[in-house]
Every structure is written in C-alpha cells, then in structure tokens.
Design brief:
- It is built from 24 helices and 16 strands.
- By secondary structure, the protein is an alpha/beta fold.
C-alpha cells in the first residue's frame, strides 16, 4: 500500500500545501501604512509581527529600482525564535542534498511584483506583490508557479489565490527523488527534486522524463495527473469536448539559477568568484534591480555545490531589514555574508567591505529569466502576450567588468566593476573562458552555456572536496574494532597539518588541470564557516554510522548468553541501555535493517521477562 494513500484520509487541512510552503500572501501599498499584507493563505497561518514587517518591506523593490511592469525576485529572511521543525522536515532532510535541505532559521521569499500606471490610484501607480514564503530553496519551481498564478490573480484576486492553493494542496508531498507533474492554474510543471543518492552532475530533467507516469488514452476513461486531478474526459460528445490537457513545462531544475545570465559580464572572474563563495568572504552585490541582485546572489551561493554554503546570504536586502545595523556597522569587521542590494545608499556603507560587485544596467536588460509555463489554449487566450525582454543576440560579446580599487567605490555614481584587492589562489581557466565566449559568438543557447559553467564549477568543487572526504574517511575506526560489549570507538580528530601533508600524493591536481596555490586555498578554507559546516555535517554522519554498526553488532550478538552469569543489577542496566539505543535508532532513523530492530525489541522483552516481578514493574514504569 502506498503510504500516501494511508495518510490521505487522516491528513490535516492544507497539510500538503504546508509541506511545500509556509504561506502565500498578497502585499499592497497603503498610503497611510506603506506596505501592508492584504491577504494571507492558508488563513490560519501564524506569522509574528516582526516576520510580517520584514515580509512587507522585502516584497517591494525600493524606489531606486524603477521597476515598471512585472518583476520576479527572491529574498531570504530570518524566522522568529521559537518556531519548531515539523517531523516531515527531518524525513525530507534525511535524503536531500545538503544544499537543498529545509531551512531551520530562515524563510525564502519568492515575489511576483506588478507596478503599472493607474489613474484611479492617488499615487498614479498600481503596486502589488504576490509572495510565496517557503523553507525550500526551490527558486525556479516557485517562480514558475508564480508565473502560472499571477496573470489570473491580478484580475480575479482572492478566488484565484484560493483555487491555486487548493490545487497545490493536491500535490504530492515533496521528497528527494520525486518526479511529478504539478498542475497549477491551467499549466503543468514537470519537476524532479534532487536526491542525495543522485549521481553528481546528472541532468534532473532526463530523470524526470523517465520517471513521470505517462497519461492514459481518453478511451480508457478520465485521465489523472500525478496529483489526482481529472484533466480530460471522454470526447464522445464533440459539443462538450473538453479543453485538451496542457503540455507539461519541464523545468531543467527546481533550484538552480541561470549561471550564464548572471555571470555574462563576469566570465573572466568566475574563478575568483568561486573562491570568494568557497571561503565565505563578505561580498556585496549592488545591482540595478531586485531581480538581478537576487539571481546573482543565488548563483554565487550555488556555484560551490554540492558543498553547502554555510554563511548567511540575502538575495535582496533593504535598509529596513532587522539586520541592517549588524551588517553595515563600521566599528567591526564585515560579517561572512553575501548581500544583494539595489539602493545606492549602500555604496557609502560598503567602503570597509573587502569585496563589492557593482552591476550595470546591461544586467537589467536580461530580465528575470523565469520559465513561462505552457497553459491550455483556453487559458492562454485570456492572458496578455509575454513581453519579457530577450537576451542580446549571440554576436554581442558582453563587456567584461574590470577589477577596481575600493577607493573608487566611494561615490554614488561609481561605474560597474569588481571592487576588491583579492588575489586568487588558483589561475584562471582560460580554456573555459574561451569556450563560453566562443559560444556567445556562435549563438549557443543560454541553457547550454549555463550547463558548461555549472559543470566547470561542479568539477572544481569536487576536485577540492575529494581530498577532504578521503582524509575524513581515514579517521573512521575500522569496522572490526566495533564490538557489542564495548562503547563504540572514537573518530580520530581532524588535523589540518596531517591533511595538508596528503596533498602531495592525493591532492586536487589528480583531478583538476588548474594550477595554483591549492595548499594556501585549503588553509584559508579551514578558517571559513563553510569548512566548519562541512566538518560538522560529515562528523555527524560518521557518528551515526558508528552507532548503526554498534547497534547491528548488538543485534547479532549472543546477548542471552552474556546475561547468564550476570547479576540482576547488571541485567537491568543492560535492558535500560538497549532500550535507549533502540529508541535513539528509531528517533534518528539510523541505517539499521528493520528486521534487526524487531529482533532487538523481542530480545529486550525476553531478557526483561527473566527478572523478578518487582524489577519488571520498575522497568515498565520507566
């Protein structure tokens, strides 16, 4: 029986919707209050006043952006203290890649903002944002979903929003490895959620095409998509012939930004940007719009995948943010954070930051790049034509931004550039730069260019991480040293000097053609939050592996034989410890076969049954 079927009858209202997102809200501009939340779904969602305030300010471009028309962008804000994780979050995180796990202390915000002239409004402009708040970093999926909902929402408002939420509440629960067709407002989004078990670099859409269930023919009766919505019936009566089902829009990824779009004018600096992200260096991105700033920040964070970016990052940051003073204080060193801003005021506050990336208006001309879902013919005819800006022609090789001194950033009219004194540890990959620039001249599709860049970053990160993984594996005790009657052996401590001594014979040069000071890069990496986050995660995984091996050894041991010559006190102590280990294994979902856990449960009950009745009563009371 499918576990989804068993949960269907007893699931709470909006349970499936809440597994994808925290809420959907509408933010409007009030002449007296400023930005204010106009509508919130589900109606019973709980947001603190601080969360509502942050949400309102981050859902609108600031006045310097000059965004007219439709704009899509993202932000990331802190959750209020006291929020609890749901059990389903832990279940999802167990098999999700580290970079795609549920946010424990932040919300992602995905915004569809519209500003158009309207004479009926006192300010002369209609301004409203449709916002999705989620713990999941699925930027491409949620922007595609907003693109499907927004055209109808701005004409039908609340009824449209409720319909969209009801349809999302029929989506399957998000799970690593899930491939599904997700229907939404006449469109169908074909997605695949990556899993920790995926082969690094494998295209998600190819897997999705193989795994998504194909629809049955109309002669067999109603056709249902994976979420259980009837979308087509028998066409026996031509007059009542239904609208043909929309063709699914296959998303190339649920989370990866368009690297080529973001790094078009930075191709000669990709190596340096990768190092800055890897080391968690303070970096400010000053962009002409929230769409450009948010996509660029997310691209920087994603370029070190599969390594998780463990520093803070804000795709869109304003002066109203609660951390504004913390991040722009001149009396302390800049924090390890990547900020995306659009207000020129920030230029003055960033003069003590070591790295500032100032983007020009050419980046704005590229648009937000969000995929437009294909809707059914009936729905498509009711919508305005897509007027999104096109990419420049393939013959236009973009002008590359230059490295500039920080002193030239002090004026508000500072020209675009990369303001830093940073010296890269590794040499530039000239082969990659030539390949991508030649692709522009030959009009190579943007998707292919992005795939080339992502493959480069992936191989570079893997070359950097593999020696670390190999050294960590050497710190793990041998399996034969794990015995049922002793405490599991300890994992040996990480020694930076010992690791660096292994680079000569097993370093990145074995898998990467890039030359440079790899040792210096590792020494700098050891001081970064990204190393601390990686080490803690790997140490936790290895500890759980040791616990699993020890529990398996206990399950397979002759425990009854061991108890024959033991005192009642020792047996009681054994039962208590075995119960704790069994409870911990189930609570933390250790990788131990279920039949062994069942055997251990029976063994505990059997041993406890040999004790006097008064001791059995004591054990039951615990």
């Amino acid at each position: 029986m499918d576990p989804e079927d068993g949960r269907e009858a007893e699931r709470r209202p909006w349970e499936r919707l809440s597994s994808w997102l925290e809420c959907v809200c509408v933010v409007t501009f009030d002449l007296e209050l400023g930005q204010a939340i106009e509508l919130l779904y589900p109606p019973d969602v709980k947001l603190t006043e601080k969360e509502k305030s942050s949400l309102c300010y981050l859902s609108f471009p600031d006045s310097y952006s000059g965004c007219v028309g439709d704009t899509r962008f993202s932000f990331r804000m802190r959750q209020s203290v006291g929020r609890r994780r749901r059990p389903a979050d832990d279940l999802y995180d167990r098999d999700a890649p580290a970079a795609l796990q549920m946010e424990a202390s932040h919300f992602y915000g995905y915004v569809y903002f519209r500003q158009v002239k309207d004479a009926s409004v006192k300010r002369g402009y209609f301004q409203k944002s449709l916002v999705v708040l989620s713990r999941l970093p699925f930027v491409r999926l949620f922007h595609a979903a907003l693109g499907a909902v927004a055209p109808d929402f701005f004409s039908a408002a609340e009824p449209c929003l409720r319909t969209a939420c009801e349809q999302m509440d029929r989506w399957p629960f998000p799970a690593p490895g899930l491939s599904a067709d997700l229907p939404l407002m006449g469109a169908v989004l074909r997605v695949r959620i990556p899993s920790r078990k995926d082969k690094a670099g494998s295209p998600p859409t190819a897997a999705a095409e193989e795994e998504v269930r194909t629809s049955k023919s109309a002669e067999d009766g109603p056709v249902f998509d994976i979420a259980g919505l009837a979308i087509c019936t028998s066409a026996a009566d031509p007059q009542n012939a239904p609208v043909p089902p929309p063709r699914p829009t296959a998303l190339p990824s649920v989370h990866e930004p368009d690297l080529f779009r973001c790094f078009r004018s930075l191709l000669i600096h990709t190596q340096m940007l990768w190092e800055l992200a890897l080391l968690g260096e303070p970096l400010a991105v000053v962009a002409p719009s929230p769409a450009v700033s948010s996509e660029t920040v997310l691209a920087l964070v994603s370029c070190i995948a599969p390594l998780k970016f463990c520093c803070d990052f804000r795709p869109y940051f304003t002066v109203h943010d609660g951390e504004f003073r913390e991040y722009t204080a001149k009396t302390r060193a800049p924090p390890n954070v990547i900020l995306g801003v659009t207000n020129p005021f920030f230029v003055k506050t960033f003069h003590n930051w070591p790295h500032v990336l100032r983007l020009g208006e050419s980046a704005e001309a590229l648009g937000d790049g969000s995929p437009r879902p294909q809707a059914s013919p009936r729905v498509r005819s009711e919508r305005a034509p897509d007027k999104s800006p096109r990419l420049p022609s393939g013959e236009d090789v973009p002008k590359q931004l230059k490295i500039k001194k920080m002193a030239k950033l002090k004026t508000l009219d500072a020209k675009p550039g990369v303001f830093t004194a940073y010296k890269s540890f590794l040499l530039k990959d000239k082969v990659l730069i030539k390949r991508v620039l030649k692709g522009i001249q030959r009009r190579r599709p943007s998707e292919v260019q992005s795939a080339i860049l992502r493959r480069h970053f992936l191989e570079l990160t893997q070359s950097f991480i593999i020696p670390l993984e190999r050294y960590m594996a050497s710190l793990m005790p041998l399996q034969r040293s794990v015995t049922p009657w002793k405490t599991p052996p300890q994992i040996r401590p990480f020694s930076q000097d010992d690791f660096l001594s292994t680079l000569e014979r097993g370093g990145p040069r074995l898998t990467s053609a890039l030359r440079g000071d790899w040792t210096g890069l590792y020494r700098k990496f050891f001081k970064s939050p990204n190393f601390d986050g990686w080490y803690r995660r790997r140490l936790g995984e290895m500890t759980r592996k040791l616990e699993s091996l020890h529990l398996e050894a206990v399950c397979l041991a002759d425990v009854p034989g061991w108890t024959r010559d033991k005192s009642e006190v020792e047996i009681v102590d054994l039962v208590v410890k075995l119960r704790e280990k069994l409870s911990k294994a189930r609570r933390r979902r250790l990788q131990v076969r279920e039949d062994l856990l069942t055997k251990l449960q029976s063994l505990i009950e059997s041993i406890a049954g040999t004790l006097p009745k008064d001791l059995q009563d004591v054990l039951r009371a615990q």
